[in-house]
From TrEMBL:
One of its GO terms (biological process) is protein deubiquitination. Its EC number is 3.4.19.12. It comes from the Eukaryota. It is a lipid-anchor. It holds the Pfam family Peptidase_C12. This is Ubiquitin carboxyl-terminal hydrolase. Its main location: cytoplasm. GO terms for cellular component: endoplasmic reticulum membrane. InterPro entries: Papain-like_cys_pep_sf (IPR038765), Peptidase_C12_UCH (IPR001578), Peptidase_C12_UCH_sf (IPR036959), UCH_AS (IPR057254). GO terms for molecular function: cysteine-type deubiquitinase activity.
Amino acid sequence: IQLPMEINPEMLNKVLSRLGVVPGWQFVDVLGFEEDVLSAVPNPACALLLLFPLTAQHENFRKKQIEELKGQEVSSEVYFVKQTASNSCGTIGLIHAVANNQEKILSRCNADPVFSLPPLTQLQWCLS
């Protein structure tokens, strides 16, 4: 049984380093969406992970979205893996953020080592 990965900038940046992300790309806390708060976020940015508590309202919204999206497929140009392990949403978000920005943030020598592995292996690698 794997424990969920701690989701904070320090831990996420350690994983980025292990993945071969070039220096300069990092996770930072975004404490609000007001203009003055966002002006402190380094630019450019290529991904945003939203961490929020699950509520009954969100669960109802999610179920409605699932019905509306039935039959649609994710573009082959978008890396997508469905979360199947509980408490792994931050890890899955990290995998999506890096995998969908490989050309921008990975050094050529490290491109695509983990993302060619099966999804569960990716998750286990990130948590190790």
